[in-house]
Amino acid sequence: MGLVEIPLPQANPSEALVKVSVAGVNSIDGHFRDGRLRMPLPFIPGQEGAGVVTAVGPQVKTLKVGDRVAWSGTSKSYAEYVAVAEEHLVPVPDSVSDEQAAAGMIQGLTAHYLVNDTYKLKPGDTALVHAAAGGVGLLLVQLLHAVGARVIGTVSSEEKAVLAREAGADEVVVFTRQDFESEVKRLTGGKGVEVVYDGVGKATFDKNLNVMRLRGMLVLYGMSSGPVPPVDPAKLSEKGSLYMARTTLAHFTATREELLARTSDLFRMIAEGKLKVRIAKTYALAEAAQAHGDMEARKMAGKLLLIP
Q: N or C: more exposed end of the chain, with fewer CB within 10 A?
């Protein structure tokens, strides 16, 4: 992956041309890079960002030149300029920085729908959050804590355990030296948790089924360790009539109205200081390969950003 000069993109009638201020680095970009997800080459990665509108197509109705916007779910964001469909662009309020907006789009919106739509948590419910010091994890822990849930997080190091606790985790399991299955059973008195939020996938799947309460919910929203194996539904019955969902952000921002409502709520919480976005490191656009290397090595806790 390297930096090359290409012609300025041209916006279609329903698109806006945006000068990119910040682009977010995400695991899905790494999946495109390593071949787990395939796109025709040459390919410009980058699924989210924030910037300023510099031109609009004739069919664009809600945007004008100079508007600050953010986006997710559209490729080619690792660039100085990107053409984005109007339906994917959301306004960024003055009280939220470009860095906060870009860092909050994919991971923040994911945490938002996980807490608000996949399982209806009640105060006192217990949730297990894998990778609790990751980009989604830190936001998810904060939102769960805010609704009064007891949060058990898993992390890979003591340093990350500190970050998870600061975000609101009540208990933290360092999985590199503790078995999360036995620890969760101990911490819940053998009863298990109401819900497991898992963006890891293959490495944690089997043990997840052993730490849920009767009629508990497993929400799979990622696969950083690889896809889970095929599941016989009878296994879910044997483990306690468990529920399982495999979700993706696109289905929770499927309409323009839902996207605007969710981002508006997210940006409001960021602006009010109720949700803190941790930016681990920023890189120049030419350092995108290094950013990917750091992401894959799990050297950073929080969001990685590229600055064109």
A: N
Phi-psi region of 148 (alpha: psi -120 to 50; beta: other; left: phi over 0): left
123 touches 149 (CB < 8 A): yes
pLDDT digits (tens, 9 = 90+) for 181-237: 999 999 999 999 999 999 998 999 999 999 999 999 999 998 888 889 899 999 999
Of the candidates 148, 120, 144, 109, the residue with the CA atom closest to the CA atom of residue 130: 144
- Report the predicted TM-score, pTM, of the whole model to 2 decimal places: 0.93
At 296, the pLDDT band (50, 70, 90 cuts) reads confident
User: Left if phi > 0, otherwise alpha if psi is -120 to 50, otherwise beta: which for 65?
Assistant: beta
DSSP the chain: ------PPP---TTEEEEEEEEEEE-HHHHHHHHTSS--PSS-----EEEEEEEEE-TT--S--TT-EEEEES-S--SSSEEEEEGGGEEE--TTS-HHHHHHHTHHHHHHHHIIIIIS---TT-EEEETTTTSHHHHHHHHHHHHTT-EEEEEESSHHHHHHHHHHT-SEEEETTTS-HHHHHHHHTTT--EEEEEESS-TTTHHHHTTSEEEEEEEEE---TT-PPPP--HHHHHHTTS-EEEE--GGGGS-SHHHHHHHHHHHHHHHHTTSS---EEEEEEGGGHHHHHHHHHTT--SSEEEEE-
Determine the residue type at 88.
Answer: H
Instruction: For residue range 45-61, list pLDDT tens digits in order.
Output: 999 999 999 999 999 99
- Interior/surface letters 182-202, b for 16+ CB within 10 angstroms, e for the rest: ebbbebbeeebbbbbbbbbbe
pLDDT at 141: 98
